[in-house]
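Marked as duplicate of an earlier ticket. Keeping the data here for the record.
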Amino acid sequence: MFSSISKIDRRIISVFSCIFVAALTVLYFDLFSNSKVTSNQPVIAKTIEITNDIRIKQKDQFDWSKSVLNNNLHYGDQIFSGSNSNTVIQLNDGQKLKIAENSLIRFDQKQGVKNFKIMFGSLTAQVKKNEVIEVTICGEKHKIKATNDDDILISNNNNCIAPEIKLKKSSISSYLPKKKNKIFAQLSQPAPEVVIIPKKEPVVLKAPEIVKTKIVMKPTTKFQHIEWPAVPNATSYKVLFMDSDNSNRIIKTVETKDLFYDFEPLAEYNNYTYKIEAVGDMKDFLTNTSVAGTIKIKYEPIKIAKPETILTMNARTSDQPAKIVEQEIKWDKTPRAAFYKVEFSDNPDFNPVTETEKTKTNALKINLTNFGKKHYRIKSYTAKGKDLSKSYQQSYVDYVKKFDLSPPQISEKLKNQSFFFQNTDGKFIKLSWENTQIEKAPNHYIEISNTPDFKNVINSFSTKKQIIFLNQSIIQGKYYWRVKSYSPTVISDWSETAVLKIASKRNIASEDK
């Protein structure tokens, strides 16, 4: 009798049983799991016949997997057939292709165009009349068009020593380098005609003619439409935009197949120069176009909301200082402006500019500390400091002292008086005015100067009357005088300036001679 199985034997049997089951699992995974891996690429074909060793490598995967019937093929997938192995693949349009043994093929299917890359080996594909397929063989890409429904054989069995592209019965047309023309042959029976067109040499293309060469656009317009007519033999067009202020600065380059382009201006540039180059299938183009276009962004002048502002302060005396007043100035926004500069001056010529303020908004608050006019102007700029627009209006804020009393009035006939004497001086000259508020300010103060700005006062008088007589002698010449009324508690502003002329009759007579 056989001895019973020991516990150690049982453990050994159990361990080897587990190893056997694990090996079967790995084998199953190797045979079937990879075929179920999905791809993100579109499906372009499936396997309908398989003989022996056929393997597939998806574009998204690193490993090869064994192919099974109805295995989906995706864009970018590769298929390999071993010795004594082949497969038939059906494309989405129902057409079939057969891959021979010892072949490696990649499928780069495009929409409406079959595309095969023959690493090595060969395949036979069905093609329809006027159908175009693309074949990459020995590093060269060929476009092939059959004149009839046919079968095409593509092979690379000798490491690119003698690659072949053959049709059974159709004529073919293909763009090829001349050195590769020998690839084309006939499969079994003579074709009625074989037409092989060598690849075209690069050509110099005509310069595009721009429809509108001078474009003026508003800064609020988002896009500018540029168009040009088609150029013979051009496959696309290259549009270059430059800064008009610096032609060496290329702002943007675009390549398009359209005969137009919608350009969006940039905030930091105002004026552009652009040109269009035609590009051929060999990327040949005319480097210097005969016609260039310009785009000028026209900014409207800055409009100030209230160009003339007058502020008043009531005053009882001429010595009363000005109160500090805050005043806001506003203006219309400039499209695409990043900031504004406001320049101030005491005169409308802005010579000199006394103060400059910078703001990002279209408003600014200023403090008025003294009486008089404060002229200002506004300029807008891009973020890089380029001018956009400016104001042209004469704009100012006038801070005026308003007296409680009205100034005395000088009649029109007394504003410009002439007195003639026998000698070169004279006296007893009469000056008069009218004070309508005599009860509030019974006193009057008169100044006489030989300059209209009264910086050189030669005489002054005080009186309660509304008339004075100049008793002292006054040398002939031209003088200016003014008057104001006052009381211990209130004072008026100066009257208008009047002119006084003293002349000698002797001088007049000598001038007449």
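See parent ticket for discussion. The longest helix spans residues 7-33.
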